[in-house]
Amino acid sequence: MVDSQIVLWGQTIAYTSYALVIILLMAWFGLKITKAGKSNKVSNTFFYSFVGFLVVLGVSLHIVTYNTIPWASMDLNRDDIKPDKVFNITMENHQFILPSDRLIIKEGEKALFDVTSNDLTYGFGVFRSDNSMIFQMQVVPGHRNDILWQFEKPGVYTIRSTEYSGPKGAQMILKDVVEVKAQ
Amino acid sequence: MSFKDTFLNGEQGMFKPASLTPMQKLVLRFIVVGLLFYGFAVIEGMIMRIYQIEPISAITDYQYFAILTAHPLVGIFGSTYSLVFGAFLFLVPFLMKKPLWSVKLGNWTFILITVGTLTFWLAGFITHYAPLYTLYWPLPADFTQFSPIGGVFFITGIALVMVGAVFFVINVFKTITYTPDGWDKQPSGALMASAIGYEGLRNLFKKKEKRKEHLVSLPVAAIARGTVDVALNAGIILFTGVLILVYLVSHLFGTDLKDTAVDALLYKNWFWWGLDLIADGLVLIFVAGTWYLLAMMITGKKLFMQNIARAALLVELIVSWTVWSHHLLSDQAQPGFLKIVSGELVTAFELITQGLAFFITLATLWKAKPLKMTNELKFLLGGLLGFALAVPAGIMQADIGLNRILHNTQWIIGPHVHVAILVGLTMTLYSAIYILLPIVTNGAKLYSQKLANFHFWAHLIGGIGMGAFMGMAGLEGMLRRTIYFNGEFNLYMVLAGICGGLLLLAFLAFFYNIVMTVGLKGVIGIFTPSKLNEKDLLPVEEK
Predict the structure, then answer these.
(1) Chain A within 8 Å of B134 (Cβ-Cβ)?
(2) Of the N and C termini of chain A, which has fewer Cβ atoms inside 10 Å?
(3) Per residue in B117-133, pLDDT tens?
């Protein structure tokens, strides 16, 4: 499975390129409209082509990501996929209650994190040691909150609440409690 | 003129508050208070920017989150609602060439928004009530963390703002449809149908020769359609406020109601449906309408593709009722079809509707070249750039795959929210202020063009820069709505802080420029009653 860091790099490059182009385009436009000369016609064909481009872009983005980001389809179809490991986790009083001190997974295994909240709305996120995020989900009381994930790289990871649950929530961090072992 | 004279009487003494009509005073009051609340929000923002670099020992974490709760609400309700409502209560009658239906109700809108904002701000400041603007259930009723008395005042403040918003809605629609004294009977139903887009929709199914003409102008149609979302949003927030108040008051009277009686996910759907009527509804519709009006006023020409623009405003209104699920893409219990249809596909329509508004505005300006680079034009271009940057950032996060690694990170609040609000929305509002200033002040002269230029560049660079550095931190995993105690993302936060400082300087330059334009006596004069006829929008000799 493609690592989430690779997806983020792709996004960074795509968005940064777009941002630079649109900033330069607006700067050029600002200069151009103040220059003397005849007013310009804007053709209807140009306008409708732009509308068509937006439609194609809006629709194709999700088709592309669905087919290139592996966890997207796995997430939508997770009820039909048998996990290799299941971890039942409870959240209550701003604490994580784990089934064991360390959650041990083998590289390439599909692990299901089934998280229940007994009081507030929390978040459940897994982070690398450099604080970058692998994934997250919301944890809503009274509902099933489960996420299936395939870890591609061995390492030790941290769990952290990713949703605000009052000032106490900022301390909801369990360092190095997920261990992914090499096959 | 000496500095003292200018400070007291305004630039060249040209601003005469006694010459203002009640309507001009009303809009200027909204502007003054809107800018003051914007100043509140900027200072709060800077406190939080510093806190993200290094937690300040004098501010507890409870106080920090109380600031985080108040900050967006002061910015949106106290500042933006004041500026937008003030401008539109003036522009609807101005564009329709008829008096406002009720100046008294307009004044009540002003009072309720001002008092309401001060009430919820003070409740947060004093009691540290901090459930954030999202109010995820059952956090607003968590009495182990928050004071119920603080909550009662906080929710009451929000409710006052919403009542003010309801008064604004009534005033706008009554002004569009009513018949002023001495006028021929106005076709109320037809005016309403034209304003909200029903007549335009019917025209689509009629032969060309049978199509009816639009009875209201495009900017008024935009205001009316955005106002529909203001009404729906006020209803949702008022209902939610009452629900929370029931829990707060019951607790104060010694009875703790079961918080499980409210389904947290259903509540989240309900609340986001209502909140999105602001973020993805009235803001986008009002902004598009304002762009069109500004482009027409700056160029003095008709709007490019105005029928398409009118139709797009209706599409945007309908889209705004159906996009809320993009906020719940990380909620695993949320049905998959809602995530795909509402969260992804309908949300992608915003790229199309906002892209259309962007293109139409630029094409209108382009056709009228050469144009002079006035303050209103440069701020309009800044506003267009802001949305051109922020909307695609939002569309990216409204994707099931990408949301998994972006939700609740600084990416959301930086390149999307802050760039949309600070660069897109605020620069559009500044453009409107610069173009309306001579109209509503009867020709007051701007104190300093150099300060206006500094305001533009500092705001533009500060806003885009802050959003960009927050976004970079977000892509590296930095969350929003939390505190990092060990300087994990210090480099980005220092750079974002410097850009935030530029935003603060930009605001101070603008505020000083406006005060020196109208003078201290002028500012005070805005708040004294006008002796002129309240049915006149402008002084009679100015017409």
Answers:
(1) yes
(2) C
(3) 999 999 999 999 999 99
Q: Give yes or no for B65 touching A (CB within 8 A).
A: yes
User: In whole angstroms, what is the distance from residue B113 CA to residue A81 CA?
Assistant: 52
Q: Which pLDDT band holds residue B542 (cuts at 50, 70, 90)?
A: very low
Selecting from A22, A123, A127 the residue whose C-beta is nearest the C-beta of B388 gives A22
Cα separation of A177 and A125, whole Å? 12
Of residues A94, A101, A105, A179, the one with CA closest to residue A139: A94
Whether residue B541 has pLDDT greater than 80: no
Q: Please provide residue A63's backbone torsions phi and psi, each rounded to the nearest 5 degrees.
A: -65, -45
What digits encode the pLDDT tens for the residues B289-329?
A: 999 999 999 999 999 998 899 999 999 999 999 999 999 99
DSSP state of B155: H
Note the pLDDT of residue A1: 65
Q: What is the mean pLDDT of residues B429-456?
A: 96
B108 pLDDT higher than 90: yes
What is the rounded CA–CA span in Å between residue B177 and residue B194? 10
Q: Judge: domain A83-181, CATH 2.60.40.420.
A: yes
Helix count and strand count (H, E) for chain B: 21, 0
What is the secondary structure of B313-375 as a DSSP string?
HHHHHHHHTS-GGGGGTTBTTS-HHHIIIIIIIIHHHHHHHHHHHHHHHHHHHHHT-S----H
Cis peptide before B22 (omega within 30 of 0): no
CA B229 and chain centroid, separation: 12
Residue B283 in this model has a pLDDT that exceeds 60 = yes
Q: Which of residues 340-359 of B touch A (CB under 8 A)?
A: 340, 344-345, 348-349, 351-352, 355-356, 359
Is beta strand A145-150 parallel, antiparallel or unpaired with respect to A110-117?
Answer: antiparallel
In degrees and rounded to multiples of 5, residue B143 shows phi and psi of -85, 0
- Of residues B166, B153, B167, B85, the one with CA closest to residue B119: B153
Chain B partners within 8 Å of A79 (Cβ)? none
Going by C-beta distance under 8 Å and a sequence separation of 6 or more, which residues neighbour residue B432? B83, B87, B290, B294, B376
- Cβ proximity of B289 and B313 under 8 Å: yes
- How far is A58 from chain B, CA to nearest CA, in Å? 5
428-457 in chain B: CB under 8 A from chain A: none
Instruction: Tell the residue number behind the tokens 């009381």, with chain if given.
Output: A141
- Domain spans of chain A, in order of start: 4-68, 83-181
**pLDDT (0 to 100) of residue B543:** 46
Whether residue B400 and residue A66 make contact (CB cut-off 8 A), yes or no, is yes
Q: Is 0.90 surpassed by the pTM of this model?
A: yes
Domains of chain B by residue range = 60-262
Cis preceding-peptide flag for A70 (omega within 30 of 0): no
Cα–Cα dist B89/B227, whole Å: 11
Strand order, beta sheet including A173-181: A103-106, A173-181, A155-160, A122-127, A133-139
| Contact at CB, B369 and A32, closer than 8 angstroms | yes
Q: For the ranges B75-84, B196-205, B262-271, B433-442, which has the lowest average pLDDT?
A: B196-205
Tens digits of per-residue pLDDT, B122-176? 999 999 999 999 999 999 999 999 999 999 999 999 999 999 999 999 999 999 9
Q: Are B228 and B196 in contact (CB under 8 A)?
A: yes
